[in-house]
Amino acid sequence: QKEVEQNSGPLSVPEGAIASLNCTYSDRGSQSFFWYRQYSGKSPELIMSIYSNGDKEDGRFTAQLNKASQYVSLLIRDSQPSDSATYLCAGDSGGYQKVTFGTGTKLQVIP
Amino acid sequence: DGGITQSPKYLFRKEGQNVTLSCEQNLNHDAMYWYRQDPGQGLRLIYYSQIVNDFQKGDIAEGYSVSREKKESFPLTVTSAQKNPTAFYLCASSISGGQYEQYFGPGTRLTVT
Questions:
Q1: Using the beta-carbon criterion (under 8 Å), do A43 and B97 form an inter-chain contact?
Q2: How far is it, in rounded angstroms, from Cα A44 to Cα B106?
Q3: Whether the Cβ atoms of residue A57 and residue A74 lie closer than 8 Å to each other
Q4: Of A93, A52, A90, which Cα lies nearest the Cα of B97?
Q5: Residue from B48, B49, B88, B99 whose CB has the most chain A CBs within 10 Å, to mutate
Q6: What pLDDT score was predicted for residue B8?
Q7: B39: nearest CA in chain A?
Q8: Closest-CA residue to B85 (of B22, B28, B15, B34)
Q9: Average per-residue pLDDT in chain B?
Q10: Pairing mode, strands A19-25 and A105-110
Q11: How far is B16 from chain A (nearest CA, A)?
Q12: Which of B35, B40, B88, B111 has the most CB atoms less than 10 A away?
């Protein structure tokens, strides 16, 4: 079973700090990775996708991919209380036909 | 506006009844997916479809059935054979396949008593 693993948290950071969320994956064939944000009781919302080794920045969010070490991370700069949510990491699997999700990391930004 | 709709938002059923959850998308996406989420858990894949009239079982297909007669629609039936059907059900779509971003509908919360 191909897996995507995340620390369930909660990860608590003060407002204005950098939040660092990490994810590891077991399928060396995975090429595409995604970060979703899910507020309590709501459906997941796509934040970032990353396909190549290195960093990808979008506003306050930076996704990092290291295929050799099989990890993906998400950095949130200048964290805000509105960033408090569960963050799901996902990677393609099954010959690119589907996506495997991690169980999510709960982030709490303390005002 | 393009998007994915799921209905109803909340659904209550008695044990032993089959129930069908609706999922419609107007994004012109080829691939559609059904996930189940239990409290404090990640998403588990039930069924997925890459093209009209074709679908594959996911990791937890037992007790569920789907159809894909139209590109826009991918309904999920929760049958009485599903032992623990109470959950949050999420439908998603992507352009084609797992290498592309998936976009989710608002979800249906099913409670079976």
A1: no
A2: 8
A3: no
A4: A93
A5: B99
A6: 92
A7: A41
A8: B15
A9: 94
A10: unpaired
A11: 26
A12: B35
